[in-house]
Write a structure and sequence with these properties.
Elements lengths: L10 H15 L8 H14 L5 H10 L4 H9 L9 H15 L5 E6 L5 H12 L6 E7 L2 H9 L1 E3 L3 H10 L10 E4 L2 E4 L1 H4 L2 E5 L11 E6 L8 H14 E9 L14 E3 L6 E4 L2
Parallel strand pairs: 1-2, 1-7, 2-6, 7-8
Antiparallel strand pairs: 3-5, 4-5, 8-10, 9-10
Helix pairs in contact: 1-3, 5-6
Length: 277
């Protein structure tokens, strides 16, 4: 099956598959962007060498062990440490000093994938001497990827890029002090994950579970349609303290959403908003 066969995945086939996944397994992808879902499902068929949609549908319907694989592929997100370094620079210089005035800090990384940005936040907090009075909640729908957060192990080949991002974010220490190199892997200091709570959470169906001073959800909303974006942003609004901060991805915005009037954007070029009411 070639990449040009994307159009062969019919809309009715997609709806049939999403309905089966939801009814049988409780994962609701019905409000995800259709073009993105088609690309990912087509990719699954290529990877798994499935000759037809009928074969894929049969596997989903009859093989319980196949579902975790499907969920991993449909929810995979590209991430890296200190991604968009200037955003982390603003967090370091303007947001954390405000959070420092709180007796205790709760931060939610929603849709955190394998946790690179969660560890980036822990490093920011450590350097601001705030990690000891903070909890970082790291959640994702994909139970497989969040296991990596508990291990704190990332590919060594990425460390040079992550170190450069760290420096651009305002970091002044030797980035390698935060991890131990073991062959092809970098094992991050256990001290960083001591303040992390890792759990599965479905932004589509699960409710608010705490009150936070900072919520980060970067490059997740771009996969949702307008209705689901509004639903998730309302969930974040319900979960965020007054004067708390919301951080989104570079291509995401709260303009023209149901919660927009509650927020003020911190800087024109950064996707960081502060809740004003």
């Amino acid at each position: 099956m070639k990449g040009t066969d994307l159009a062969l995945l019919r809309d009715e086939d997609l709806e049939l598959l999403l309905n089966e996944i939801f009814i049988s397994h409780g994962y609701d992808f019905t409000n995800y962007a259709r073009a993105s879902l088609k690309r990912r499902i087509t990719r699954i068929m290529v990877i798994d060498r499935l000759p037809s949609f009928a074969e894929l549908y049969y596997r989903v319907k009859s093989d319980e062990n196949y579902i975790p694989h499907i969920i991993r592929q449909l929810t995979v997100n590209v991430t890296e440490m200190f991604r968009d370094p200037h955003t982390f620079k603003v967090l370091r210089e303007e947001v954390l000093p405000v959070l420092a005035t709180h007796p205790f800090i709760r931060i939610w990384h929603a849709g955190c994938s394998t946790g690179e940005e969660v560890y980036s936040m822990a490093i920011l907090l450590e350097e601001a001497n705030l990690l000891h009075k903070a909890l970082i909640y790291a959640t994702d729908i994909n139970a497989h990827v969040i296991e990596n957060i508990k291990r704190g192990i990332f590919p060594m080949q990425h460390m040079k890029n992550y170190s450069e991002n760290y420096i651009l974010s305002g970091g002044r220490r030797d980035f390698s002090k935060y991890y131990t190199a073991k062959y092809e892997w970098a094992k991050f200091d256990d001290k960083l994950k001591e303040r992390m709570i890792v759990a599965t959470h479905n932004l589509v169906s699960d409710r608010s579970f705490n009150e936070f001073q900072l919520i980060c959800c970067r490059n997740v909303l771009i996969y949702f349609d307008k209705e689901l974006q509004d639903k998730v942003l309302t969930l974040f609004d319900d979960s965020l303290d007054k004067l708390g901060f919301l951080v989104l991805g570079s291509k995401e915005n709260i303009r023209f959403t149901s919660v927009a009037s509650n927020y003020r954007q911190m800087e024109n070029k950064e996707k960081i908003w502060r809740k004003m009411r």
